[in-house]
Write a structure and sequence with these properties.
The protein is built from ten helices and five strands. By secondary structure, it is an alpha/beta fold. It folds into two domains: about 130 residues, Response regulator (Rossmann fold, 3-Layer(aba) Sandwich), CATH 3.40.50; about 80 residues, Arc Repressor Mutant, subunit A, CATH 1.10.10.10. Strand 1, helix 1 and strand 2 form a beta-alpha-beta unit. The longest helix has 22 residues.
Length: about 220
Amino acid sequence: MRKQIMLVDDDIFLLNSVSNYLISRGLSVSIFDNAKSALDQLSEKIPDLIIVDVMMSNIDGYQFLIIIRSNQLFYNIPVICLTAKGMTKDRIKGYDLGFNAYLTKPFDPDELLSIIKNLLKYSVKVQNTVSLSYQNRFENFSKPNLLFVNLTEKEKIVLELLVKGLRNKEIAENLNISIRSVEKYVSKLLNKTSTRNRTELAQLIIKEFIRANDGNRTRE
């Protein structure tokens, strides 16, 4: 399965050159020339790793990262910062906000690829650990929203994998069940949430997570 990389930069030349290089190395890359478009895409498909430039108009890389790290659904995505700013204080700010790596332009694409590989290896370990908390996360989430109370434990797990962007075949491989069984679980999830398709279901879950998080911050 090709790893999904999200690349966000307002430099079109860099977008095309870096994405072509990463694709030639076996990665799947989605490119965005602004942070807002990238954030909109996150509600439909969650990447394995994000590469973002700091200096962008409207929403810059720091603000983009704050949004990512404030949402439980995106919190563990590795994020690499690309920037022309090489000052130590800038790097410290980036690390404090939650960047996993900091690469100053111009950079060697081989170095970027090496960083990506290492972060993806670490991310797999994190995801394996996070998967142990599926039940608690969905139980906590369902409390303020009765829509999800009637989901079975297996449906909750299928739902989380679906929201991460996995296809039926990939979900089946993860759970060691048949593709037909996955199709049945997805069908039940659509019926229980009154949604028409996978995209609409994923968007609903993300919106509800954001709403729940906003409520928690308000109470704090």
